[in-house]
Amino acid sequence: MKRWHRLLQSPRRLLLAVAASLVLGGAFPWSDALAQKLNFGSGDSDHPIEIFADNGIEWQQENLIFLARGNARAVRGEVTIFADELRAYYREKADGGTDIWRLDAIGKVRIKTLGETAYGDKAVYQVDKKILVLSGGKVRLVSGNDEITADNQLEYWENKQMAVARGNAFAVRADKRLKADVLAAYFRTDKKGENKLYRVDAFDRVKIVTEQNTATSNRGVYNVESGIATLTGSVKLVRGKNVLTGCSAEVNLNSGISKIFSCPASTEGTRKRAQGVLRLNKQK
Fold first, then answer.
1. Which residues of the chain have pLDDT under 50?
2. How far is CA 268 from each of CA 80, 81, 254, 262, 264, rounded to the nearest angstrom?
3. What confidence tens digit (pLDDT) does each residue in 53-84 have?
4. Quick check: 134 and 145 in contact, CB under 8 A?
5. When you count CB atoms within 10 A of the terminal residue's CB, does the N or C end of the chain come out lower?
6. For the chain, which domains are there?
């Protein structure tokens, strides 16, 4: 086993571990616990990075690339990235130093920190733009009983404090499921200086499933603090054989209470009312 010890210790260099914490902090709508780890990417940590690879580490000076191949592993603090291959792209500085501008993890990627693990085929972190993309196969993030999956990719945009899951995205906790083509989670800094999840937007083919109810719509906005999901566009609420339809709805995931609303009045003064079909149980 080859070991690459204390490589490029500056916080702005070799940020594979930083990228890991960003993904693991940013994508799940049911809990804000993951968001607390986003501060790991602030660049204040002096933890060195250790890289291990069964097949050695290659320095391509002409191409300005470091390559670690074969069961490669990068460790920084509490975050570890596993992959078949790790690549660090750098540029040379006027003072003789180097500046890493992109980091790739390729093949059987697993990003692990305390309590969370993310899976994919490829991870790319653009250091200058502070954007991390995890892609390939069905990307997956697991944290305790919480899980998020997507067919296309998971992203974290550090400057925008936003995480995005694209392509048949699912967020699941126990009997609660949120599904949409795209899920976008937003964070903000609290008084303690920690990033907290406060809102999740769901776009296209939105579906919320709880133990008793199913709600579908074109768009959804989930308020984490209140636990209320506001749905708009072709809304349908289903409970057993009972069906409610309307233009918008409020689904309280904490209390289980749902409200459905009529469409706004048109310029002609007409409006489409909320409608319900309630089916009574037959009695002998």
1. 1-45
2. 61, 60, 38, 16, 11
3. 999 989 898 899 989 999 998 887 777 889 99
4. no
5. C
6. 2-209 (2.60.450.10)
